[in-house]
Structures are given as structure tokens and as C-alpha cells.
Specification:
The chain is mainly α. The protein has helices spanning 3-13, 24-39, 51-77, 94-107, 121-139. The longest helix is centred in the middle third of the chain and has 27 residues, at 51-77. The model has no long low-confidence stretch (mean pLDDT 76).
């Protein structure tokens, strides 16, 4: 049995019934009106958020602001901050470094022959750097 013959036999046994007084044109108009409404839906205003999360977020932001403010005030009232650790210093010029080194050597009661004019400034610097390196090596 083919589908077309089966469908024809089924429709004969179960005929399509229309409601009384129902017109096909009116039914078509109703269906087309529904289709048009679905094709062009009425814009519904969207809400960004529910009201209760906004209130909760506002309270949380206010509490966080108060905690930060009181923390800053308490830190400020605790006194001046500790002096920062020096990681690097600006290198002074050679004359200043040589003078400071000579003062340190005088404090340590070490004598360097300052009367000899044969040593130039560069030789002094080399000698002092060598002395500094040997002290560093001895301390480590």
C-alpha cells in the first residue's frame, strides 16, 4: 500500500471536521496575524539587573570603602613609616670617593704614604680598589 492510498483511506475513516460557522478566510487571517506578530515581536524593555543585587553591591562597596579608609587612617596614625631599604646608591665622583676612603683609613689607623708624588690619582684609585677587594674577600 502506498502512502497516498493509505492517507486517502485514513481521511475517509477520519474526516476533517470544521467547527460550525467557521470560515476559512477568517482562520487564514488569524493565522497570518499570529505569524506576523512572531516575525516582528514587540520590543520588551530589558532590565539591567534586579533591584536587590544593586542594593547588596552598594552595601558591599560602602563597607569596602570604610574598611580601606579606616585602614589608611590607622596606618597613618601608627607613626612614620620605617626608612626604606637602600638598594643602590649614586656613585660619587673619584675625588669624593678617594677623600672618604682616606678618612676611613685614618679612622682605622692605616697609613698610606701620601708624601710620594710618584703615584698618580689613578694609581691611588687602583690601590684603594685593590685594598677594598682584599678586605671584601677576607670578610667573606
Amino acid at each position: 500500500m502506498e502512502f497516498a492510498s493509505w492517507l486517502a483511506a485514513w481521511l475517509k475513516r477520519h474526516p476533517l471536521k470544521e467547527p460550525d460557522g467557521y470560515e476559512r478566510i477568517r482562520y487564514t487571517d488569524e493565522v497570518m496575524a499570529r505569524v506576523r506578530r512572531l516575525a516582528h515581536p514587540v520590543p520588551v524593555p530589558a532590565r539591567a539587573a534586579w533591584p536587590w543585587p544593586r542594593v547588596a553591591v552598594a552595601f558591599a562597596a560602602a563597607a569596602a570603602s570604610l574598611v580601606l579608609a579606616f585602614g589608611a587612617l590607622r596606618h597613618h596614625a601608627a607613626g612614620p613609616a620605617a626608612t626604606p631599604m637602600v638598594l643602590a646608591e649614586r656613585q660619587d665622583d673619584d675625588a669624593t670617593w678617594l677623600e672618604q676612603t682616606m678618612q676611613l683609613l685614618n679612622e682605622l689607623d692605616e697609613q698610606i704614604d701620601e708624601s710620594s708624588d710618584s703615584a698618580s690619582g689613578e694609581e691611588w684609585i687602583d690601590d684603594l680598589e685593590l685594598l677594598d677587594d682584599s678586605d671584601f674577600a677576607a670578610s667573606s
